[in-house]
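Anyone? Bumping this.
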Amino acid sequence: MNFEAAVLELLDRREIADLIHSYCFHFDRSEPEKVAGLFTQDATLDYGPESATIVGAEAIASTIAVGLEHTFAATSHHVSNIQLEFEGPDAARAVTSLYAWHRYADGSPDGELWGCYRHRFERTDAGSWRIAALVLEAAGTSNFHRQTMHPIGRR
Amino acid sequence: MNFEAAVLELLDRREIADLIHSYCFHFDRSEPEKVAGLFTQDATLDYGPESATIVGAEAIASTIAVGLEHTFAATSHHVSNIQLEFEGPDAARAVTSLYAWHRYADGSPDGELWGCYRHRFERTDAGSWRIAALVLEAAGTSNFHRQTMHPIGRR
Amino acid sequence: MNFEAAVLELLDRREIADLIHSYCFHFDRSEPEKVAGLFTQDATLDYGPESATIVGAEAIASTIAVGLEHTFAATSHHVSNIQLEFEGPDAARAVTSLYAWHRYADGSPDGELWGCYRHRFERTDAGSWRIAALVLEAAGTSNFHRQTMHPIGRR
């Protein structure tokens, strides 16, 4: 067994988990530029079939900013169950459970979403990991502001 | 300090966490055979005093399949707070927090459960970890399809 | 790269995560003495502006005991998204997401809190980590027994 390779992989796993957590942290604090900074320059972000896939870190920042300012009064994104697989030394995929709570700016009842994020990650030339793709899938919602979501793939 | 032993334990912890996550993943996607494949051949699964303890991977698959087909329209199992202790090189126990959301096939209000899983894990002869025992305990429920649950042991 | 230092840090991270999980575990099982045992002797615990900051492990035990006996019939604390930074070999800070469910002794509707814990940790002379400071911040609440909370810092 190669212990040094095992330690490096554990460190990569920790860094990637921090990336997922940072997304939630900055989203809930309404910091769209910091959310966007976690993505690669050509990343794709797909929140569901009701809105076009967002492409590129700049578009991610400006698109998220609208929702953070006008749709939500508060949000709380709780992720867990991270299942991460490496596809090479500089690429990985994960499925992560998400329980997200939303308070709306217009006073609508709080919205909840139970589902998961499907992430693709890439190690940049500078050495740090970034989100290259993110797709949101829902097992179900309650009072949510979107009616149709990508499904989690229940049989 | 034995660094190689420490790394091996960290890898075991990661593999066991993946096992807990895979249970949730396959349950929520209604894949009873894949859920059962995470258990040892003689594993026990105790969902509470209202139903008999299920014994053996085959019985787990067939019993879970009934609930997944007839009781639930959707579920989402969010685990966290994994507290794992090794009882030897090939055995471990854990308490893991569970927040589970359930949408019912008959249109009943969504059921929620806040509680924990008590797991026992064994390393198989082939080297990989499996769930040897699972007991579900509830701190509380709301609109849940079971009335009586094993308690978490609040004083 | 110093692999031994990397492994030691991973072990510290695991021990500190266990500390956060133990807090939840013992709180939900109404074990105030065991909760207090996770804190340093001069630790501070700030649940929000409606109550004075609790100082010292003994005061933590006695103060928590009152709420556990009189306010709550059951609780379930689900933590995730642990973002931990070391501030030296024996000190660390973390932000950790919290979803907490509360059933009240007086029969009031279940209270929910979505937010985070801000922890400071110290390694004691005996070598083990303890909580030196804990501040609770809320993104939002529903039917909660406190009206005013420290905010998470949404812009």
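Late reply, but here is one note on the structure posted above: The two ends of chain C are 39 Å apart (CA to CA).
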